[in-house]
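Problem statement: downstream parser choked on a complex file, so we are re-checking the raw output for the pyridoxal-5'-phosphate run. The parser issue turned out to be on our end (a line-ending mismatch), but while we're here, posting the original submission so the record is complete.
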Amino acid sequence: MGSINQNSLAPACPVIVDQSILKKIGNTPLIHMENISKRYPNVEIYAKAEWRNAGGSVKSRPALQMIEDGEASGQLTKEKIILDSTSGNTGVAYALIGKIKGYRVKLVMPANAVKERKGVMADFYGAEIVSSSPFEGSDGAIILAKEIYDKDPDKYFMPDQYNNDSNWRAHYLHTAEEIWKQTNGEITHFCAGIGTGGTIMGNTRKFRELNPKIQCYAVEPAEELHGLEGLKHMASSIVPGIYDESILDGKISVVTEDGYNMVETLEKEEGILVGHSSAAAIVAAMELAEKIDKGVIVTVFPDSCDTTYINFGKFKEFQDSQLPPATHKTDH
Ligand SMILES: Cc1ncc(COP(=O)(O)O)c(C=O)c1O
């Protein structure tokens, strides 16, 4: 009988030892916009694929940083409940990280967001969801979360993503370093949407150190009432404590309709199906590309338009709950 030569057998896939899903936060790919870049002879446009983070969005980075900095400082202990306001992505990230690390999570979301995909996902991971007024958007959720915290501060750990330096530090420590390495230090321009401001602040601060010539722009909705989910129109919102416009080279405003149209262009031209704010980020990157003769522009795609959620029974349950009560016809 022949014996099997073990050495000649290569493993079919790498053996993963002691890996947590939380290790899948960070180190996201940088994608070259092949066809869009061709419109500009000496300009290359890249986007950081943040939907590849565990938790599905850019917000997994600050959520993990805020939670781990809270643990390190002793403010977050196992008896405490993680409480924060969110309109979606951060909530999913808190809920996932809480599930893995063994913390209870309570999220305040505008009522209209609760029944959308992200509310459903956060609930799916076991977070307790509290609804704030659908008419007050993310500002209403911020105020209600603060009220809940103030009533019983010992019970909660409130990361407060709008005022927590760990939020922007997640990008300062990781995202910007990754972009710097992924472009071999050739990045000349950076632009990113503003929600809490964490992405733009953290990256800008690190780029200022790595190469002060890199120009950094925040992307914001042009209209006060807009449809670019995840982005804040600063002039009409509570300005986050971590947001400091003075360190930026400028802001680029994007009209909602242009963002929506760009979702389709990105899918057709690049084969990438992303959310509205990612599309808005590319609209802004293209506006920059029009203005410069040469350069490497990097932007951030915060989340995708992924369809995997439709696999969840919860989504089906939600869909069913939206249907009008069945009217039964009797056949005679
Ligand atoms: C869906 C979504 N989440 C988050 C962000 C960025 O948020 P922050 O400013 O909080 O880093 C954006 C910005 O483009 C976004 O579109």
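For whoever reads this later: The two ends are 74 Å apart (CA to CA).
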